[in-house]
Amino acid sequence: MLAAKRIFLVNIGEEPQIIKRYIQKMEYKLPVLIDRYGQVAKKYHATVTPTLVDIDTNGQIAIFKRGFRVIDKGTIRDRIMSLAGVISAPE
What we know:
By secondary structure, the protein is α+β, with helices and mostly antiparallel strands. The protein folds into two domains: 8-43, no CATH class; 47-86, no CATH class. It has helices at residues 16-26, 39-43, 73-84, and strands at 9-12, 32-35, 51-55, 61-66. The N and C termini lie far apart (36 Å).
């Protein structure tokens, strides 16, 4: 049986109150996991933020992308929308 797709934002080292204000300001709708001690970041070698890690249903890393470039915005958005089962409209 395949696991359901789930998308999370992971915050590294920030206080929960700061994260909550930021998420509300940015109007993010995804759940946020708080990695207060950097354990998740260490496990997935997330040495910079943002880091995109797509873990497939077998627990293997399918996509690993460090950092962000404006040119990547559409590709990253499309990948997240695809994982969420949403068809992206052209910009």
